[in-house]
Design a protein that fits this description.
- The chain is of the alpha+beta class.
- It has five helices and six strands.
């Protein structure tokens, strides 16, 4: 497995394991963010009224799992002091993530920019649904690798 500093523009990485999205994870995310819409929490109502017939994860729950997934596909580097989330240039939620479905993230490095603090990595990411094989989200994520002196 390569470190972030070993990657070249165009390199692609993918998680080997699927990440299950449980109702408990969805509930905890709702509590953390204060977003308690019934579409995320009320299983009985969703079975009756939701077009998905199931509770669905918050889109930002899927997005917030991206750093964890990225850390699973690269090796740590002793040249990096820390990694800082630098933002998201573009994010689209394409398909809902139903409770108890699983996700797998795919990454492609598209740009590396030198910054005074280190290197800024722009990564195109997609998050695939195990149930359909379709992407649940796509986005351009930015991560700043603060380099050790």
């Amino acid at each position: 497995m390569k470190t972030l500093l070993d990657l070249s523009v165009g390199d692609s990485l993918e998680q080997s394991e699927w990440l299950p999205i449980t109702q408990d994870m969805i509930n905890q995310f709702a509590d953390a963010t204060g977003d308690h819409q019934w579409i995320h929490l009320d299983e009985a109502r969703c079975e009756m009224e939701s077009p998905f017939k199931s509770t669905i994860a918050h889109g930002f729950l899927s997005a917030s799992l991206m750093p964890k997934a990225f850390a699973e596909v690269i090796s740590p580097s002793d040249k990096i002091a820390s990694m800082i989330n630098y933002g998201i240039d573009k994010l689209r939620f394409l398909e809902p993530v139903k409770s108890n479905d699983s996700l797998k993230y795919h990454f492609t490095l598209v740009e590396v920019t030198e910054k005074p603090q280190g290197k800024l990595f722009k990564v195109e990411a997609s998050c695939l649904l195990k149930s359909s094989g379709n992407p649940a989200l796509v986005g351009s994520f930015l991560m700043l690798a603060v380099l050790k002196p």
